[in-house]
Amino acid sequence: MSATASPADDSAEEASGLRKIIHVDMDAFYASVEQRDEPALRGLPIAVGGSGPRGVLTTCSYEARKFGCRSAMPSATARRLCPGLIFRPPRFAVYTQVSHQIRDIFLDYTPHVEPLSLDEAFLDVTEDLKGIGSAVRIAELIRARIKAETGLTASAGVSYNKFLAKLASDQHKPDGLCVIRPGEGAQFAQGLPVRRFFGIGPRGAEKMAGLGIETGADLTACDIAFLRGHFGAQADYLYRAARGIDLRRVKAGRARKSVGTERTLDKDISSGSALRKVLARIIELTWTRIEKSGSHGRTVTLKLKHGDFSQLTRARSLPSTVASKAEFEAIGHALLDEVLPLAQPVRLVGLTLSALDDESEQGLTQIGASQGSLPF
Ligand code: TTP
Ligand code: MG
Questions:
Q1: Containing structural domain, residue 148
Q2: Banded pLDDT at 12 (limits 50, 70, 90)
Q3: Which of 154, 104, 153 is nearest to 129 (CA)?
Q4: Cα 182 to middle of ligand 2, angstroms
Q5: Active site residue 120
Q6: Which of 274-283, 290-299, 365-374 ranks highest by mean pLDDT?
Q7: Ligand 1: residues whose CB is within 6 Å?
Q8: Which of 24, 32, 58 is the best mutation target for the ligand 1 pocket, counting ligand atoms within 8 Å of the beta carbon and taking the most?
Q9: Distance in Å, CA 269 to ligand 1 centroid
Q10: What's the CA gap between 158 and 16, in Å, rounded?
């Protein structure tokens, strides 16, 4: 492996110049909101999510993290790790309202705000609306205002691209600020385990480990042809990221990517007729939300999660937007028919409309929009 070949548009990277990017991410977001609104919970290990036998944590307070509790962990596991764990159900309306509050704060400094979910966003402050000039100063002001106006803490990362800013915001959590300055990015990325790279999930990290790639430094030892052979479309991103380079621009107004509903079932089911009934209810709920938000989308995705948490999805994209509930319904059921009969019973059913062509400002994401028991 050598680093001779490089992605074709390397020169564009150099030509693009440095930008000032901030990534802001609220700390233990849902759990912090619950502790804010119920002071008796402050300082205690708490989780937000279903407490029943099939519940899953959406998140948990830092006090609970000391016991090993984590987002997406089954509630039963979390309770074993932390017997005193206190559960609260999620209150999405409150989280959405806080999300709007922080969005309004960001917009005071720059119009270039790209929300990634209810609690995090990228800001491009290369030019800022108040003429402050310093991204670090802006990040400090934003964190102070979030605390003053919402009573919650946020962590921020400041750097010259999105990849590094996001890594930085995670570096000194909670209530932290980290700056990766020009010239420091490559070294920072190379010192990290690859699983910390945005876009590399546990399976990706495992595959890399199999190839002897554990850290960013190991990635830089791979040439682009090798990476393309193993990682296809992701190769150029990885090649650059390991060098602290990321060409992606902050794109404003990308809050809403999909409208979807997921339901965790009381009992695992495998019968086609029972699943059709569940799907019919999900279609009703989702279509109401699609209409309420004025969304128009072209892709319908059905998701089924099995009892062992393995997942199956089927999607269909139309040349134009789904025009009616009847059409949405027909596609949803056709997707279900494609996977029947099922090899194993399912615990969760979800249906999503995506490839939206609206730029609605509601700030909902798939996570925030989930209903019933939580999806993860
Ligand atoms: P995160 O920012 O990933 O987590 P967090 O804010 O709870 O904690 P951290 O301090 O590490 O940033 O997600 C934001 C919210 O999104 C989180 O509070 C709950 C929700 N969420 C889920 O519903 N399911 C999930 O699997 C994750 C990761 C988050
Ligand atoms: Mg967060």
A1: 10-25+95-250
A2: very low
A3: 104
A4: 25
A5: yes
A6: 274-283
A7: 25-30, 58-59, 71-72, 117, 119-120, 173-174, 367, 374, 376
A8: 58
A9: 29
A10: 18
**pLDDT (average), residues 322-342:** 93
88 and 103 co-located in one domain: no
Domain boundary among 195, 226, 250: 250
CA distance 153 to 176: 9
Quote the tokens at residue 139: 């990040």
How remote is the CA of residue 29 from the centroid of ligand 2, in Å? 5
Q: Please pick, among 34, 63, 114, 120, the residue that the annotation labels catalytic.
A: 120
The answer on 206 and 157 residing in a single domain is: yes
pLDDT of 78 > 90? The answer is yes
What is the CA 87 to chain-centroid distance, rounded?
22
Both 170 and 21 in a single domain? yes
CATH of residue 49: 3.40.1170.60
pLDDT tens per residue across span 156-170: 999 999 999 999 999
Q: Is the residue at 183 inside a domain? A: yes
Q: Give yes or no: residues 100 and 34 share one domain.
A: no
Q: What is the DSSP letter of 40?
A: G
Q: Three-state SS for 114?
A: strand
Instruction: Say what the pLDDT of residue 293 is.
Output: 66
Ligand 1 atom showing the smallest separation from residue 370 Cα: 23
**Contact (CB, 8 A) for 160 and 245:** no
